[in-house]
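Journal club prep — side note

Before the paper discussion, L.F. wants everyone to see what a predicted structure for a comparable chain looks like in token form. Sequence:
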Amino acid sequence: MDWTEKYRPAHLADIVGNGTAVRQMLDWARGWKRGTKPLILYGKPGIGKTSAAYALANDMQWEAMELNASDQRTKAVIERVAGAGSTSGSLTGALRRLVVLDEADNLQGTADKGGAKAILDIIRDARQPIILIANDLYGLTPDIRAACDPVQFKALPARSLAPYLKFICSVEKVQCNDQALKDIAENSAGDMRAAITMLYAAAIGKERIDEPDIRTSMKDGRASIFQLIPAVFGRTAGDDLIRMSYEIDDTPDVIEQWIEANLGTLKGPEEAALAYRYLSRADEYIGYTYRQQYYTLWRYATVTMLLGTNIASGGHGIHERISSPRRWQRMASSRRQKGIRTALLGKCGGLMHMPQQTVRDGYLNLLTILAEKDPLTFARKLDLDADQLALLIHDRVKATAIAKQIAGEKREEDKKEKIKAQKKPAAEQKKSKPPIEGSAEVTTRAVETVPPAEPGPSPPAQEEKQPKGGGRQSTLF
């Protein structure tokens, strides 16, 4: 049996490290009631987030139900699986059902279309406790982050990992050199799962583990961009910076964007000016590379940007969260604005029976004036959301308030329709009841079944026999 599963903690007391996070989880579970915010457990992979969620469920005698990134997490799937679990009780007799959404920050691409909104809807309507698990807290949408309470799990220090690895060796009756255990703990970079996997790989078929035995089981030491950027601004040697840049999968132009996005962490304008000088020179090499298709120039760009920025920073390091390239943020914002504008022009064009381009070129200013005069009626007529209305009236606060008002009106209408639909079957059922003997309905039917009398006088003759008072005789008599 794989040791990572065999030694997975069954209770919160078995969790190694992260005592503050464990206490936060326990306090949340003990005080949970309907309306309590879900938790977001975030931190690097392999440090015990998922294990802690299941250990909490076990300690609280809750049933756990998981939906992770291996599932297709469309809106329909999330609502069917997690949505049902968050509103219904346990089928096993457990006190509650804990819904665990693992890798919640990986909701991207067409496979997860609508998944983020479905998660937000489930959080708002939940009647059972929910825990979201993410590697990057900021990989979640702002709405989801605001609807949950974050709990940070930190990387485990080597001094905490080594004793636990020694405990596993004693249980498995495997002798292990202390230095070998220390090397595994340090190489795992705080990843408990990786440390146990390395120990298991080194112990297969052996009764004793020494330092040479762990070299083949070491974790892949490939660097990532999140390790390279702090190293560039820190005191890392030039040779190590070049080696790390070759290990990551990003090209030099992407690395340049990451470095530029974090130049704001430099101490003063002189350091920033020097770093920009090196970056501009590296950008020239990147431009030559793409124009001439001569990729040997990439190495000059890499050396210039890495060593130049390292010199400009003076080894002060980065003491805040690493920023992603602003260009990506601007591109994402531009795509979003374009989508809003296209949807708005489509609605206006549909109402006016005109192509979107005609509306944009000739009528958009006029529509803006009309919308500013009576935004509520305009938004109601075209079924505009807050973003589309704000694009017309240039007032985000007012547009949001109007959108909320229209949404409230729609909810009231839906409620009335629902009540009306419930009353309709009751009325139909009342009409379908069999008549009671002696009722007026039976009498009327009896009268109608009498054989017709001889033909009477023509209509004018009947009018002559009407009483003079203008009264009207009953047709039944």
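L.F.'s comment for the group: Strands lie at 39-42, 63-67, 97-101, 130-134, 149-152, 175-176, 208-209. Keep this in mind when we get to the figures.
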